[in-house]
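Sat 14:20. Reprocessing the chain from the morning session after the first attempt stalled halfway. Input below, unchanged.
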Amino acid sequence: MDLGIAGRTAIICASSKGLGRGCAEALAQAGCTVVINGRDATTLEATAAAIRAATGATVIAVVADVSTKAGQDALLAAAPNPDILVNNNGGPPPKPFRQVTREGLLEGVVQNMATPLELVQRVIDGMVERGFGRIINITSASVVTPLTGLDVSSAARAGLTAFLAGVAREVAHANVTINNILPGVFDTDRIKTATNKVAEMQGISIEQATKNRLAAVPAGRLGTPDEFGKLCGFVASAHAGYITGQNFLIDGGAFRGTF
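Finished this time. Tokens:
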């Protein structure tokens, strides 16, 4: 399918690897100029080179911490008028809720709620003026179903979802959409780290913790960044202008709900 966004410019936060990279690859394949981001220059440049070679797209690599003003300034200097913004940022590691400190709670809110909101504030008026915009927030399945130890991440991402629900309706008339993609367990470094932490918390082996996670997934496997990216590509496409304020759960059937 031609997604109808060739020539558009996309900023994809935290995209040197994992789900962010999957999104960057999909948007590059669709013909977008992509601005990718990470904090490790070596990893980021390797990703940029790989995407260029695979797609022929223009790829701009920005080494930055998106949770800082300097990092956000760097992204927007590389693409002052983005058509597509994919908000993504690492969340806090799993931790028993009794061990959550005030500082840890505030840091989670900064990383997973305040940071994406700040970026939305900076790009949304330009999108409205130009009559096209796609804002996609990578949140988590934990927004709709509890995941042990991810209380801070779940709360911050749920707050982001609630905050932008009304905003999405304010800008829909201008062909600017705001949606969220909620991943379950995917084959990424973060899932490996989180699984190791859960194993430690529960006093079980990493192998057993991995089996436990997969046992809860009807698909019987981890998701891949590529299939996640393909969903992101469609939500960012010209064909998705009538979809806004929605949560797209992609978890292999792990959420046991009808609605």
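The chain has eight helices and seven strands.
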